[in-house]
## 1
Amino acid sequence: MQPRRWFDILRLRIRSLAARRRTDYELDKELRFHLQQQIAENLARGLSPEEAHYAALRKVGGLTQIQEECRDMRRINYIENILQDLRYAARTLINNPAFTAVMVLTLALSIGANSAIFSVIDGVLLKPLPYHEPNRLVRVHVSNATFPKFRLNPFDFLDYRARNRSFETLAGFVRSDVQLSGIDQPERLAAVRITAGYFHMLGLQPALGREFDTKDELPANAREVILSHRLWQRRFASDPNILGQKIVLDTIPFTVVGVMPPGVEHVGNDHQTLAQGETVDAWYPFTFTGNPANRGAHYLDGIGRLKDGVSPGAAKSEMDALAAQIGREHPGFFDNWRVRLIPLYEEVVGKSERLLLVLMGAVGFVLLIACANAANLLLARATARTREIAVRSALGAGRYRLIRQMLTESLMISLVGAALGIVIAEVGVRTLVALLPPDFPRAHAIHVDATVFGFTFAIALITGLLFGLAPALQSGRGDLVQALRESGRSTTGSGRQLHLRNLLVVAEVSLAFVLLIGAGLMMRSFLTLLHTDPGFQPEHVLTAGISLPQQQYPKSPEIISFFDRLVKNLATLPGVRYAGAGSDVPWTGYNENLTFFVEGRKGTSTSSSRARFHCATSDYFLATGIPLVRGRFFNERDTEKAPPVVIINQILARQYMPNEDPIGKRITFTDEPKEADWFTIAGIVGDVKDTPSSERAEAAIWFPLLQQPFSAMSLVIRAQSDPKLLVNAVREKVREIDPRLAVAQVRLLDQIAHEGVATPRFALFLVTLFAALALVLAAIGTYGVMSYSVGQRIHEFGVRMALGARPSDVRSLVVNQGLRLALLGIALGIASALALGRVVQSLLYGIKAADPLTFAVVSVVAVAIASLACYLPARRATSVDPMIALRSE
């Protein structure tokens, strides 16, 4: 062998090895074999071992250099192969525009829906709360057998704050709106009274000025206020010299000591405070007034920051011990209270977490159905491309290369669908935010951002692999010789492919059935909620809030005079049927409680004698449409000089006075009543729940305004036509009596009722939308499989009809085949829906997750849709002339 010739052959062999992607180990083994051969030849020529070794190295070349050359060739070939796959996939998809459009649109809808729901989940559940180390923040409540979550007594809070060792900072707050006056028109401000260290506990600090300290909690020093950035800009023109200026709140001068930075979010999450993230206009100090020995009143919200390393469980144990100690120091007030600590995140998110996870699961089902549909389409297309794949295999393409090519096509489709899905997600997020219930937490944090883009890209890759893997694995299998021999004749899919497509149809039907069950349950729940008697008539009713400043109206006669005069003036307006005022309006979540005792019965301050307490004028019940069941409403004779009276609701009568006539009976609100402490039951009205989704109404008591006045009341005006026409007139009547007062929270009662069912309506809309999309996709998938099956069996059907089979027999054969798949999917769907029932039970009202009627109706609908999807291909099977079908093969 000539040396140069041998060297060239070795180089060619190495290049061949590189082209075939040999590993470094195989190359090393090959090179060392040839090196040893060359050394042996040199030794035979008489060279010494050392000379023979170096001569061989000079001829063969450096092993490391050759290996690096091979690695470079592998990298270059790999990149070229990827680019070739991409170019081929793009040409293939462009040449099949109908197929590509269907695939891209199907995936775009499902990926876009997933991205939109993920945007909501990301904004509400995944993004951390906008406070320093929010995982250490907990809400502090007390609880007992009657009240699972209750506010703190202010003096109990002082003891907790002074004695605990688990909290770095413990703070309290309570909503207390104020009226800003002296600057243009009076305005009602959303305000919160806070204890010292509130902002420090949240990890916030004012942009201007300072926050409150313990000295500001003293009543003599409490005339200071911190403004929100929004109010500072809107009403004070961003005055940089605002600090130290006086502003009038509820007719009292307050000194501005601070301005918070923009975007400060409130931590509350209930109607008595403010929804989390809602804008607060002003904060002013909470003062501890009254008798420290009286621990009966609970109205302060607690929040604390745990010390680093202290777990909520350890903090709860210490706080429970403190509660027991305080209970022993102040007997008669504690009623077995225990401290309940709830992470702030959990308190803010609330029930929305379950709802969002259910929606994410629902839209995930839609994505899986879309993947199954796409896989079915690709399987059908792979069958049609059998000859192409056979030719490529015959020309040397390995199975790995074919699989990679098919996956490249599916990933390209998925990524194009994701790009379009981002646009759909952007539109979907804006629509979702507009549809969200007004009290939905953290709605301001929902938007499409980099996290959503990353999620969309990831879901596109996963989706492309999911629907592309099965067709890709199937593409390299089969008898390639037979495929080449067919030379253009129609090819049929293998039995394995047919079984896989049938399995995908079963999965689609099963997933769609689960979504249909969820939509059906939510629809029944929503209809049950709508058809439940609310206990009042919300149509044509205007509501508005009026709060009287204590300094301006310090005594009951002034309060009574103002509201009595205002209500009478409103009643004289044209178009007004009834005008009244009450401490609250229905379905706003009012839940203030009072302990009462029935005359003639032994009682203690126990859970058996608590009820919601309200205040109302004589026409309040007529204005709201709450019916009188027995007795009478309040009237003008129920003054402070008359015997005290109350009105109760039906559930209180049933619960505490069963089988008795409550009218004329007396109740009291003190353990040792005097004669003047007894209230006579004058009437019984219908039950009204705190919220529309509450399980039942609570026991309730109403006091007449003329005897027990409240300084903050809600006006309720029933109009003869459109109540919106009365808004300006109501404001004018208030200005006539006191031009310094602001009218706030002007809303229609039917708007309040509408908002009360906003959450179940939102859930119903989305789940129904996803279920409808899933049903359409499942029907398309079933139709596609049956249509493909009919196309492959045209010859068989021609033979059957040529031998005497009737068209109806052929149709029955095709429909029965498809229905077997659909019924199997429905059976699996029923089992899955029953297993997942506990997940959605908390979102339902008035029905069970295993509701038989819903399952029956959805099963009938699913069978009907599946039958239609099977019938259309069945008609095609009988529309072909038998002789043409026979000649086609």
## 2
Amino acid sequence: MSTSKTTRESLPAALTRIAGEAGASIPPAWPLAATVAVNPFLGQAEESLATASHRLARATGVTATMDRSWYRDKLASGAVTDEDIADALKTAPGALEAKTPAGVRQAIADDAEPVSALPTIADLAAQASGIDWPAIIADRITAWAGSYFDEGQAFWTMPQGKSVYASWRSYALHDLTSEIVGLQGFAAHMSRAPDQARDMFIRASKTLGLDRNQAPSYFHQLLMSLGGWGQYARYKLWQSDLAGDSNDIMLDMLAIRIAWEEALFLQYEDGIKAAWKDAKAGHGADMEASQAQLLDALLQEACERAEQRRVAGIMAQNVPQAAPAPANERPAMQLALCIDVRSEVFRRALESLDASIETLGFAGFFGLTISHKRFASDVEEHRLPVLLNAGLSSVSGCSHDHEEDLSQRYKDRAVRAWGRFKLAAVSTFAFVEAAGPMYISKLLRDAFGFAEAKKAADPAPQLTTQLSPSEAVDAAETILNAMSLTDGFGRLVILAGHGAHVENNPHESALQCGACGGYSGEANARLLAQLLNNADVRTALEARGIHVPADTLFLGGLHSTTTDKVELFIDGHDISQHGVDIKQVKAWLAEAGKLTRIERAMRLPGANNQNDVRARSRDWSQVRPEWGLAGCSAFIAAPRARTRGKDLGGRSFLHNYTWQQDKDFSVLELIMTAPVVVGSWISLQYFGSVTAPEIFGGGNKLLHNVIGGLGVLEGNTGPMRAGLPWQSVHDGDKLMHDPLRLTVAIEAPCEAMSDILERHPGVRALFDNRWLHLIALDDKGQFSRRYVGNLHWEAFDSEKTPHSAEPAIAEA
């Protein structure tokens, strides 16, 4: 908006606009059933890390970087060198006072001064009264929101049909807790409150004396104070925007929070007026990072440069390979797995068994944007990246299985009814006394790990969206091109989605496929196998230059990341000519699983061997069934030959890509705007859960209570927690995830990548502000050039010699 237009804007209009912008700066949080890794700095992509850290500190008292001691340890251990600091200093703003590695070391000898948030009215009222008003507000909002937003957990839910603000206002009129604690006449105050959320926050803003310069920072702070409830509301707004609808939910949440501020201000005005004036001045100040924040951001950059140097060294290794198969010999098997970092370990183990085995990395939804219903279920599961809308629908089982469908539905309803009877308020205690002894054997099995792990038992999925013959062929061609799999097909090609089988874990979906909206990729893989086995599709592909041999069989599979077992789905396929192939493949997969578990056992606390790793998936007391994507630091898009045999430690996303086959760079554009962005969300979620666990982490699993099926409370009150639990990033003694922003290394011409960034400003902002790092690989898979922002590149030099930035040029 232009300056002249902004100055003509009325205060109510300006406050409404600012409220919307503040809402957009809050990261979304998906519900537990379909947890999606989210970039907690999504609303700050246009800012540098130092500025975002300053904004966060102003709102919450927490910074976005690590404690100074963590960086000192990196330097002391030699993991980060003076050369890395010197390299990072080239990116530092002129305002940074430390200009040399020696100056940086001297500046970080002492800890940074503690930061504190600007006080809210609730904070000031707490100081004036001795009553913990922030905690009371969090408790009362949770008591309402847990029922209002409930997704099936609660037996008694809030009446629906009202807007978020209207529902809360109705609740506030009857909730006397705040008045009992000391907020006099709060119910009467809310009875006189405006009916509309917009009018509420405009009235409260005037009461508090906010101007248009102070409101952006203050509104952001209030929404951040809502914790997971603000983030869940942002998710609802995200879903609405994706569907092309309008939604005022963030304005409603702001109105709810500021209504408390107004009531507290009116009660404690005399005692807090001066302090509130100072706080408002702080909110109106420019968003300029301090020297400490600039320095910590520089140290973070140096750590990431050191990690790039480490990965570059691995990529430069000349790894002895087993004798390659003759050029005219087909692969003994081909296995396509998700690009997920956990797949890297399994792929490396499998390829070590035989030189004729090929593996590929591709996004786990396999290019099929499906809304899927499991057998006998009406729940639509969006098994696709959250950046996209579903384009296809599918269901497990065929439509003619009507009697079996009804039978399963009756069984499911009986189980749900029994479960509700067990937990209902009027029967729970009687149930324990009367029926509790029947559960002794089950409790013993679960306690000692004798229970069987969950297994995918759905019938084969079927597309219910009708694709025309040309649409089916287009889809097959697009997906094969995106996989860089257009020739050299083996007799058996396995397309394996991935998922996780665990017991008693509210955050189970966080271990599932990030590309599949927190679900497993099984249905996507099985549907693609059906599509590629279709004779008519193959005939049409032949005319488009993709020859799939008649004896090539595609099979769907499911890679369990907790047990490292790959299950093959052969139902519905003619395997009569592939019995020997399948027997051999199963043996290879079993051996690769054993090797993978042995490697993973070295990192998992309490795991002494590969059997211990497998048993964790059925242990209902296990807080660390696996490490998920902890440790992720790099995304590599290149031919598999560049990384084959090189131990990347389960820390790299691996996407097959051959740019010479990508004539118009449409596949490159897809990679940079979809899988790379999803990878950044995963990386930055882990980053935020480590650097700022108080606001972006899920807290301690041992204290968790699930609320509304949406998230968890740490204990029995307070705001809902979003993000990863502490046990997902820490083993009890040390961090298991180094908080590093993702390095994206792509074997492709710099000019092509620059063109894509220029067309996608949102993606470009991630790289320009270094929320992601971009490296170009040469034709040998070596780190060659570094993107330095503003569509410029420089030579990448592992020796850290200075190089000037220059525009991208065409490469052969």
## 3
Amino acid sequence: MNRTGNNPHIFGVRHLSPGGSYHLLQFLDEVQPEAVLIEGLSDANSQIPHFTSSDTKPPVAILAYTEELPVRTILYPFADYSPEYQALVWVRKHGAHAEFIDLPSDVFIPLDYQLADKPADKPVVKPADKSADKPTDKPEDKLAEQTEQPEPPEPPLVSRSDIYEHWAKVAGEEDHETYWEYNFEHNLNRDAYRLASFEFGRSMRELLMDAPLEYAKNIVREAYMRNRIANAIRSGYRPEKIVVVTGAYHASALNSDAEPMSDEEFDKLPRVRTKLTLMPYSYYRLSSRSGYGAGNNAPAYFGLMWESFRKGCFEKLPAGYLSRIAAYLRENGTHRSSAEVIEGVRLANTLAALHLGSAPSNRDLRDAAVVCLGYGELSTVAEAIANTDIGTAIGSLREGVSRTSIQDDFYRELKRLKLERYRSAVAMDLDLDLRENRRVQSEEAAYLDLSRSFFLHRLKVLNISFQQMKQKTQQSATWSESWVLQWTPEAEIELVESTLRGETVELAAAYVFKERLDNSQSIPDAAKVIREACECGMMESMEQARQALQRLAVDSGSFIEIAEAAFNLSLVISYGDIRKFDTSHLVPLLQQLFLRGSLLMPDAARCDNTAARAGIGAVNYMNAVSLEHFETIDEELWIKKLMELSDADDRNPLLSGYACAILLERNKIDGVKLAQEVSRRLSPGIEADLGAGWFEGLSMRNRYALLARMNLWEQLNEYVNSLDQEQFKRALVFLRRAFGDFSPGEKRSICENLGEIWGTGREDASDLLHRELNEEEQKKIDELNEFDFGDI
């Protein structure tokens, strides 16, 4: 029993248990307590009225967090069917006293994280005390033990989940969830849940005593909870009129003979400064699949079970579950009949009977859905099962309830920007047009999408996972943005953590920008802040970043860094008109960066192939700036430096070839000049690393122009024919890489060109080179794969 003499009633539960709620409410009606004491952060007692408000829709959670960085958090989630939540609802209806009695967050958090920072406990099942287990010094006895016990011992259980699964297997079930559901959730006999959970929790304590750190933490918690129980009795509540609702693991410890924690002992516990808030939660987050340890596999399914308990029709749960799956399938274009649902219910009942269950478990129902609604294919019903098991429900709280200032600002902005409907567990697309909408009357409405963009970019800076920006394509207009919005409890937690950076989303983003500028060591860092501040519509942060960039640029001699910074700055200037701010003060800085980048490029091309590939990105940045801002930067100097690099024999050939490709693309060299350069670079006797490397750079841009120049392919053919076997193999490294990302159509054009050069006909050569290799040709390829390419 879990109650002796005049001790309070202890009711042990699983934290997300509809059966626990069903039995607890019956027990409360029977006892009619004056006080209900609940496992939960004791500094959250002021929030209890909000839990039971008519404006509150579970799931919701208590979130406590530290006031200093790094932010540490602890979360107490509640579903509608959580016993603790239903206890609070009962208290409100009956005018009793409710109180959370676990450690306050300022003690709980440091205690929790101190344990997390230490080596993990390895609890094991304590073996029975057998004489055969005693050590012996006799060799013959040891030999006898080895021959009599050939089976190796089972490995020790190393976590609470291991203990649960081991317990289930001993009981004849495949997993703990199904064991718990058969034996606890489905057992509607009076007092069955309370007594069974008490014994279950006591057994768990005995099995887990070899986890000293975890066990010690629970000893501290339980001593404090006994303190609060004793305090309730001192306050005048009769012990027999007190009900304590706690996790089953703690139940046997709260009515034990152990002493409660004294006030002096409590005062000596380590503390940190914390704050506490309520937040909406979601069924997905409650699902153990999302990582929450005290969750369950199917929160929406247990919500269905709770509804069946409340309506007194538990026997209709299987039909309701399978009907929902069938309805989901129909909504998505797969028709299933009522007869198939009925057959599924019959199969689920049969499966439960085979396990001696009084009703089908969630596993039985899923198996029946696969057989009768999926016709044996899980893939057919997997999405429907996930929707019915987990669901997309999100809780809600009355506006302004226990929110931090940044949370309040976030929700105000959602409302102002008409984004409230996107606060959904289902991902939704949002396309923005940043241009002025001239069809509306107010200025706010005219620039609604622009304001939305500013807001979403600020959230992005704060790493708040409410939004994700889609990757832009080359064809994307500068005035358009595409986002995917999806609300998660993690986003709410990230908002709360941002409280330490500022009271509003904008102020917090400004703090992040300043922090990044204070720590920036390179001009690309500062340039990136300029760009992001521009996207956020934060002019003051942008100006701070401009000053930092100008300061850092004085000492920078890196072509790659300067090119990246110039590119980011050019984007900001290009966005100026769209985002409605003056960029004229940024133009001199862009001119300065572009001038230095142009002058540094030729010397930066004295590098190896690894550095050259990074250099190609920098050349691309500079060329993009030149094309976009040709009226303001020194384009003539840029072309001159490209010519210098293209003509140079003492620079990296990949970069020289790439510079030649850009000049060809910009009509700065003609066919005659290109033919001369090809002839020079691909002359017989030119080393493979130089010739093939140059051609690889040339082929990276404007391929259609290259394909149309037959003399280029003639020269390449002569060059390859001039190579000896070893040089040919080295050249293949570069040529294979050069042609590796050509499209099939481009490769066919190359084959046709070569066919014409070889005199075999364009079509015949293409077909010949696209056919499968014969055995001898494959052998040659295999030999090539074994070739030692050395430092290539």
## 4
Amino acid sequence: ARNFFDKAVKSKLRLNQFGGSAGGPIAKDKAFFFLSYEGLRQKTSAPIVESTLSAAARAKAVPAIQPLLAAFPVGQYASSDPNLDIINVNAPASVGENSGGMRLDYNLSSKLRLYLRYFRDQGESYQTQNSTGSQYFTSVVPQNAVISLNQILTPTVINETKFGFNGSKTRVYGIPGSSPNANISGMTINLSGSVALGGIAGQTGSAGLAIPSGLIRLSSSFNGRGAPYTNFSESFIDNLSVVRGSHNMKFGGELRALTIYNDQLGGTTFSFANVAAFLANQPSSIAFNGDLSAKSPFTGLSGEAHMRQNYYILYGQDEWKISPTLTMSYGLRWEYYQPMHETNNKNVYFDMAKGTIIPGYKGDWYSSSKKNFGPRLAFAWAPRQFNNKTVFHIGSGFYYGPGQTEDQIQPEANDRIGRTITSGSLLAYPFDTNQIFATYNIDDPNLGYQPRAYAPGYRLPERILQYTASVQQELPGNTMLTVAYVGNQGRNLFLRSTTNKIVSVGMNATTGAAIVNREFGNRFAEIDYKTSGGRNNYNSMQVTANRRFSSGLSMGMQYTWGHSIGNSGGSNEANTAGNPFDFNADHGNNNFDIRQSFNMTGLYELPFGRNRRYLSHTGAAANFLLGGWQLGGIANARAGVPIDVLITRPDVVYRDTRDGSIYANPVLVNGSPVTTPVINTLGGGNSRNVRRPDVVAGVDPYLHSGMGWVNPAAFSIPLPGTFGNSSRNSLVGPGLSQIDLTLGKKFPFAEQKFVEFKAEIYNILNHANLANPGNVRLQQIIPSGPGASGLQPGQAFTTATAGANFGARTSTVSNQIGLGTNRQIQLALRVNF
């Protein structure tokens, strides 16, 4: 622990931020301009603590695996597991960014005003993924522009017409770690039983083990070398504002056309259930994916995908001042999100009802409702009897959204070669992908193709009902207190699960090995599917107090108690269902559930200098140096974020017919099998790997000493064919607290010209804010046969059987700037003239 904290507080940040702006008239009272530029150069390092192969483990590797050992870093000290050592590294990262913008305003006449605004940003970053040194490179070039014409039709009627463009050119690539003796370009080695790498909200890709990789996570279920894509939208917007007596009305509409050019560069992922399986060259699966732009064996098309979609929006609203003390706001908004489509029919649609694939499908991939009417209603009331010092607010409204784009492009992403191998002679390293590509036959009954699908009832959009009620009270000392209830109900939210499940298992009479049968046959592997119908709700109490700047002091305080719970967090927050037959089994805390948060801010003008309490008669030079200083601070604290404890379980296990014991392999006695294969996990497959353990009743799930946080003895292995009863996000991680200070002053050197100095100190106490444990995935290590080590279903885990670093807090939050950083000092100068 001491070694870890010593490293953690020595994380480094070097930040240079610079820029400038200028503006003024081009022609007096006619044309104006404004230009701005900002540059950023940032280099950081943050601690990463993971498990890696020990020397003892490396000595056990079979010859085929030995070339890969160099891809794993050498540990610095031993763990409780003899196969694993601990490595603690400071992982470098860098960001470079240049951004700039311009605006031109032109008065065509007293009733017509035109403006043009353009902004462009260009950024590049290198981020280290894990202790192996593998990185991902990101280049993003967002830019947007808008041209707007304001028309004053009458003194009470104003119309605004706008055309906007918003686009981004993004390139993301994986960079292998520096292992000169191990070439892992285009591949990933995962020893935790998972397939997808970490990086997508709501998913857990790492079990705290080093993952050598030349890939990055391209989607929520597979990895690849990179993802070049370009997306942009074009919007035509018109808004009409009308003031009539006590009514302030606004009407408008928008047509937004979206375009996406997308490619996904594939790779190969070797997944091993545990370290022993890796050393013996026994992968649980090999998942490989071709490039999306390569020639497809399904549609015969090549090149990047070209997708289009339109949004249609109309609205009307009115703010009606019923009386001097009562105002009502009401309105109606309608939105329609056209289903996404690929312009060249470069897609492969999977029909879940029939279990077949349809290349070049020309129908809608999913349904989208046209009945998305969102009424809004709110009241504000300031009763006279409270002397205009008390205001009541109440309001509610329906809101709609299409969700994240990834959830709408599955058929497009299917139009590529892909295969997941879970058995047979090919299930080993090395793996010749070129041979597989050359002989790829879409009619092969053992293809292992892994399309992603939509359930027949998948329907957009997601719907949220939001409502709030609050009271504001003016207090002495220029302070305003607000107490509010805020809540919402989410409906028709995004859900996901798996199909093509294992439905039966036979046995080879000679070897006792399992013969697996899937819903749609073995032509397909496990199929990830998406649907709608999820539900959640949020309820909170929010208290805010603000003191306006007066007598040299301003202050603010906010406290929130809230709870977000449901069977889905919605788009980008929905895990694969732990039970593929019942989405409600995942009813639990949402990923963003934070029960309590508190922050307080203050800004104080130090009482020194001319016209102040102290040194009020000082000279000009002394006042220049001592007067006008401002000291500010921010205190933040919040409860922990959720922890989802998962377990890796093999699809099939073997039950001993003599005593009911469970083993990982068939057992033969006198040449005949005495075990029967049984389905262990009804979902089958590991691509999403969201499986839950059973909870051991009466055992505290938290450890209360040392670096440990989650107690492995609180969990056990479920019985074969059952689903764990641990609920989604059932535990909570460490809280966070931080105090920041700022000190600043303006140094005038001429009328309306000054130099502004500011010093900012983040986390001035250098408090170590520990992140959630990186390893909260248990491994079902089943005995290979009678007398072998392992755990039987129902047996609780121990520190030894849970694996190195399970449930341990091994890293800080490690934000580079702001909330969650280690202590950092920034100095800034700004010249205003």
